[in-house]
Amino acid sequence: MRPNAAETVIQSLIVALLSLMCLSVLYPFLYMLAISLNEGADAAKGGVYLLPRAFTLLNYEIVLGNEVIRHAYLITIARTAAGTVSGLFVTLLVAFGLSYRGLPLRGVILSYILITMLFNGGLVPYYIQLNNLGLLNTFWVYILPGMFSVWNMFVMLKFIQGIPEALIESAEMDGAGPVRVLLQIIIPLSKPMLAALGLFTAVGHWNDWFTGAFFVTDQSLIPVQTFLQQLLAASDISAVLGSNTNQEALARSSQMQNITLMSIKMAVVMVSALPILCVYPFLQKYFVKGVLVGSVKG
Amino acid sequence: MYAKAYKYRWQYLMILPGVVLLFLFHYVPMAGIQVAFRDFQIGSSIWSSPWVGMDNFAFLGEEQFWTVVRNTLYISVLKFFFGFPAPILLALMINEVTHSAFRRFVQSVSYLPHFFSWIVVAYILQAFLTLDGGLVNQAVTAAGAEPIFFLGSTEWFRPVVIASGLWKETGWNTILYLAAITTIDPQLYEAAKVEGAGKLAQIRHITLPGIMPTISIVLILSIPSLITVGMDQIYPLMNSANMEVADVLDTYVLRSGLQQGYFGMATAVGLLSSVISLVLVVTTNQLSRRMNGEGLW
User: Fold this and answer.
1) Is the Cβ of B81 closer than 8 Å to some Cβ of chain A?
2) What ipTM did this prediction achieve?
3) Is the terminal CB of chain A with fewer CB neighbours within 10 Å at N or C?
4) pTM (2 decimals)?
5) Could you report the per-residue pLDDT of A194-248, keeping only the tens digit for each?
6) Which residues of B touch A209 (CB under 8 A)?
């Protein structure tokens, strides 16, 4: 069948629209990259759209030479690693425990968990509780409250229940206890699921700015995203330069006038976004699977 | 009974951390709701603070509170109005792409913004919309118009919020629809082609009905969120110039509670919105039972 004219028009219209959408997603990052690699004063004149015009690494030297930013980075990496590993561990354990249908009080425990998805005390009582537990202004405030994710647990539970029971029964027949079943059957079979949930948890930790902004006042405990949030409204450059240890870069005072707040900001945001941009292509296959397993069918 | 419970001791041990964590971070804060009816100061004990009856609900008589409610509804309804159909449209378009490499590329790119924080999105907006040298304003001035202070104006706040929301989440939200489309029997399309149905007719009579169950579930699931407009997105974009339209329930609680120390009043506002969202969730579940034959729980 030959495609008629109207369909060719629709087809090319769709390709055009989709290309435009891709452009709208990718271009901002290219633009910010170009600005961050350009001399600030020069970029402020306008006209830098795609490639840096007056190329320099100075913005990055300043950003990476900043003690506060480097420290914030360490906090982000530490909490992402610790939060993801511990979160997956607890969530998997609970899901596995609850996957035993014969478990006495199983229904009660499930309702106990479900209720927390329907109703919550709100921000202020939560804050008061963090305060009472002495978690405010500690590293643990990043880890403990998020260690058990009810949503992820239900996704995991559904996945484990999909594993053929005969597999588990035959292992039990051979004398394997629940711990052994978990380690040798469940975990190996759940790898793609664990990868997907781990990815979502890790991204959540990496991107969280709220905890650092409102539950932590100690500047040495804030993660990168909270630093970015504080810098967002900054009106002068001292917010970034205040604690710079990279004296060498600063000493080149002739270049200092080339720096603008905007170019520094773009360098900081690129530094926070680059890790995600780098790992993204490798992780794609996991997250689509993860969303679908965890989705509404069932 | 005890023997049976003992048999499952390992399972209980595995569940225990989850139960304890929920108790500490969900149930104790639920009990903390009594702060809404007490005169509580930070540092004192919740249980020994004096009761004040409904005093903390005095905000119900304040004009500012109702402005915040209006702002919340305004933004959430607009977000729903544009945000609900957008991924369906995008999924339909992606589905029409026959070139598989291009299709994969489009999908990968459209999911990408979901993985960046709202803070990064706020930076992107700043880079493009700022008064001095922002790309959009360069275009505006090049066209001979006055530059627009997008991020600091009451008229532009809502469009910026809606557009950035679409930009960030539309692609991600297509995943479910695209998955639903792949489950449609290809023979239906073949039959339609034989009978001379064009592309648009195929979409209307096969694809759309095919993904209708998914559409209705997503629709139902989005009802409870109508009362909450994520703090995550609003807070970074809020400033003193756009406050009048930007202040929503979440940010109102945040400011009055954590920043200004009106714990009782902020808890009362929080309680009110928790109750409303509970009602919405329960109603939604009933709705889903009636429409899909099964509820969400």
Assistant:
1) no
2) 0.91
3) N
4) 0.90
5) 988 999 999 999 999 999 999 999 989 999 999 999 998 877 776 666 655 555 5
6) 117, 119
Contacts of B28 in chain A (CB under 8 A): 121, 125, 129
| Residue-wise pLDDT tens digits, B199-221 | 888 999 999 999 998 898 888 88
Residue B250 falls inside a structural domain: no
Which residues in chain B have their CB less than 8 angstroms from residue A98's CB? 11, 15
Q: Which amino acid is at B12?
A: Y
Angle between helical axes of B208-222 and B154-182 (0-180°, round to 10): 130
pLDDT beyond 50 at B145: yes
The structural domain count of chain A equals 1
Query: For residues A167, A171, A173 and A175, what is the CA-based torsion angle, rounded to 10 degrees?
Result: -170
Q: Is there a domain that residue A208 lies in?
A: no
Is residue A70 within 8 Å of A57, Cβ to Cβ? no
Number of structural domains chain B divides into: 1
Across the A/B interface, how many CB contacts are shorter than 8 Å?
A: 250
Chain A: nearest CA to B241, how far in angstroms? 13
Q: Which residues of B fall within a CB distance of 8 Å from A21? A: 90, 106, 109-110, 171
Q: Which domain holds residue A40?
A: 26-56
Is B51 contained in some domain? Answer: no
Q: Using one digit for the tens of pLDDT, what is the confidence trace for B260-293?
A: 999 999 999 999 999 998 898 888 888 878 877 7
Q: Which residue of A has its CA nearest to B10?
A: A178
Kindly determine whether residue A129 and residue B102, on different chains, have CB atoms separated by under 8 Å: no
The reply to whether residue B10 touches residue A288, judged by beta carbons under 8 angstroms, is no
Closest by Cα among A75, A62, A71 to A242: A62
* CATH number of domain containing B235: 1.10.3720.10
A23: which residues sit within 8 A by CB, 6+ positions away? none
Distance of residue B63 Cα from the nearest chain A Cα, in angstroms: 22
Q: How far is CA A185 from CA A165, A177, A294, B203, in A?
A: 11, 11, 20, 44
| Residue A143 falls inside a structural domain | no
